[in-house]
Amino acid sequence: MDTLVSLSKRRGFVFQSSEIYGGTGSCWDYGPLGVELKNNIKRVWWRDFVQGRPDMVGIDASILMHPTVWKASGHLDHFTDPMVDCRECKLRFRADHVDELPWTHYCPATKGNKFTIPAREPCGHCGARRTLCPDCGKGELTAPRQFNLMFKTFMGPVEEDASVTYLRPETAQAMFVNFDNVLQSMRLKLPFGIAQAGRSFRNEITPGNFIFRTREFEQMEIEYFVNPHDTIEGRPADEYWHDRWIEDCLAWFRRYGLREENLRLREHGKDELSHYSKRTVDIDYRFPIGWSELMGIANRTDFDLKQHSKFSGKSLTYFDEERKEHVVPYVVEPAAGVDRALLAFLADAYVEEEVRGEKRVVLRLHPELAPIKVAVLPLLKKREEIVKTAHGIRADLAKYWRVVYDDTAAIGRLYRRQDEVGTPYCVTVDVQTVGDQAKGEVGDGKVTIRDRDSMEQIRVPLTALGSVFRELLSGGAWASVAGRFERKGEG
Ligand SMILES: [Zn+2]
Ligand SMILES: [Zn+2]
After folding, report:
1. Exposure check for the chain: N or C terminus, fewer CB within 10 A?
2. The pTM is what?
3. Does residue 162 have a pLDDT over 90?
């Protein structure tokens, strides 16, 4: 994890928020390359799950919603963690996490010497177990109190109870409260889904592990509505679609590079199911911190639509033409975190290898996710023709993709820099490309394309660059493209 954090800072993926002021608790800023990677993740998700499907539509709702939304959803009453406070140092802990921390102990058996003892272990000198504050080792802890994780704020100029509202803790509720608007305006038939990608806020007490758990984060959520009276392949429609979505989401993460051995499904036990859920399955990823949730796919039944109907007094039903009846749809919710997905893609892509006796760091990011698609590098920056041609190539390709020009180091160094940020292809312009007027040599009008993963190089005519990159950057295999052109040695 430290390696990823340091690479992220050094190469402009992720910075600590407000770093020059000492940073803000668990908030992170995406830098120039991070924002490209993050946008690419959201773009392919939207394209694959919304644009590409006839049964999906999207919305973009406001973050501030009517406060009653959170009463109806259960967040006001149930979205809480049990907290304990230290009476001495005033630190606050999650009651169920206190025993997971190493604890400070002033040992009476050794004249009150101070020790830090590993979590859950007793003192090796006096045998005592932790009862006091694990941090200061002096204060007693209060009884657990419920602490709501929603960020509270005030709407309008007066800070009074009547104007209290909340930053949304999830994007899901906007899909439920807009259910009828979307249904009527788009004339949809069940089953159909509403998707949204956007920011959510949770005042987590113990955030951490880089961008894994943060107080402000981005979600990509789908609410997929099905008719609970339908059966598909002999099973209730909601159960059938739940399994379909689990498969589709898993396949999506694999498609963009997460390795099979780092992914697993985890079925929630009956005791950990949310109050609304009939069944929840997590897709876990083997993060640098261990196996943890990458996304969850829940069968939320008709809980949300019924709750909002009850609290708003509006009917949120669907008219089943065949059965001539109004039904409250069931909903399957695939909910993914953008930041977590980004961390998983980064972790899975990171490789250190040895090339010709030197260490090479490569981010083997899927070309569609890579922040920079192509780097154009002039082999000699003092030759005007070479530099001019390279700038021209950058400008042409940049109409379609994020493409950079770099001449600030020798070619080997430039390749390593691009490898480290996951740029799948480099284009070099050399003397052969433009020719040498002094010697009366004419250029061949070809440039070298280097593949990040194999380091193989091919010579491609300038006129073919556009079509070659269209093929490579939309999933075309290097081997099949490279086979059509003249090979050069590795670069
Ligand atoms: Zn304390
Ligand atoms: Zn002791």
Report:
1. N
2. 0.89
3. no
